[in-house]
TrEMBL record:
Name of the featured protein: Uncharacterized protein
Source organism: Ureibacillus xyleni
Superkingdom assignment: Bacteria
Phylogenetic placement of the source organism: Bacteria, Bacillati, Bacillota, Bacilli, Bacillales
Length: 77
């Protein structure tokens, strides 16, 4: 393989790696954003007097998750 072909191959590999990294980062960021949004919704429901059982049924989340969020928010325990 000549030098020009090696450079082209290297650039293609770099671009593929960059694209793969972007996609992984995007997915991680998207999932993090969803989880933060769900947490905010749970906090809002707790602040408005919804029971843990109601939240579990509405959002299809675990009792443990709702209890952890409840404990992490001052004044809602």
């Amino acid at each position: 393989m000549d030098e020009k072909a090696v450079i082209i191959e290297a650039r293609l590999r770099i671009e593929e790696a960059r694209e793969e990294g972007f996609n992984e980062g995007f997915e991680d960021g998207f999932n993090e954003g969803i989880e933060q949004g769900v947490r905010q919704v749970i906090v809002g429901l707790l602040e408005n007097g919804f029971s843990d059982e109601d939240i579990v049924n509405i959002l299809k989340r675990s009792h443990e998750e709702v209890q952890l969020i409840r404990k992490s928010v001052i004044g809602l325990d």
